[in-house]
Design goal:
Length: 116
């Protein structure tokens, strides 16, 4: 469904327009698949609105942002971590968890998510 593919980006840009609050990360099937592979101990429910899953999603993004911030001394937001997940999901090889062109912070996120 084409609309479903574009909707998360649309929601992100609607919430990103508000300068007083950070944009709301979008938890969708792509994110769910990434979590199933790389953070299986953090199961999400995305078939319907599930507040505990969204809370776990936000807690995970917050934790991984802090890990990346500490490791790379780089200010990174939850939306940046979400972007890294989506970028990895777009080109991920399930066999080794690596993809060409994946930034170091994204590779670190893979290791961080599997050890948390």
């Amino acid at each position: 469904m084409r609309c479903g593919v574009q909707l998360p980006g649309y929601i992100y840009f609607l919430t990103a327009k508000d300068q007083e609050r950070p944009p709301a990360p979008v938890m969708d099937a792509v994110v769910d698949r990434w979590f199933e592979i790389h953070a299986p101990d953090r199961p999400l429910t995305v078939d319907y609105w599930h507040t505990p899953s969204y809370q776990l999603f936000l807690e995970s993004l917050t934790e991984w942002a802090a890990d990346i911030r500490q490791k790379f001394s780089h200010d990174i937001g939850l939306d940046d971590v979400e972007y890294l997940i989506l970028r990895m999901a777009a080109g991920l090889k399930e066999t080794d968890g690596e993809s060409r062109g994946t930034p170091n912070s994204a590779r670190f996120l893979l290791r961080s998510s599997s050890t948390s």
